[in-house]
Amino acid sequence: MPGFVHSAFAPLVVAVAERCLARRYGTGPLPPGNGTAVVLVSAGGDTASAAHVRAAVDAGDRIGPLFFFQSVPNSVAGHVAARWGLDGPVVCLSPTGDPRAEGEAEADLLLHDGDAAQALLILIELAPDGTPGEATAVLLGEGTRQ
Fold this sequence. Notes:
Layout: H1 9-25, E1 36-41, H2 47-59, H3 65-70, H4 74-84, E2 90-93, H5 99-112, E3 118-125, E4 134-141, E5 144-145
Parallel strand pairs: 1-2, 1-3
Antiparallel strand pairs: 3-4, 4-5
């Protein structure tokens, strides 16, 4: 995926988000004023990129500039929002309890406060070795659970 290197984190987020959104909206983007938030939930974040940067620093190697861009999960959440024209808030959470419950609670807060009409909830964790792990996406609000 252009703009993201070394790790499966961002491509996995994009894949599940696109699958979920395409099921409801086809190819996108959504029309302006859709009020769709992105809520990305990951306890570990992009552990593969973090490990790569840590190893490079320890070895005294130069760190590629793309790692600064992708070092925070909201970069890929923003990529999904821009690609699909999602114009609601972008929120990233590192849960301390049940990831889905915490993500749904955040989405419910955005919906009930009127900050969003619907929310794309993305749950992702890489495997302990940094390889693709598990990810899922669900569209919440406006009568949808895609």
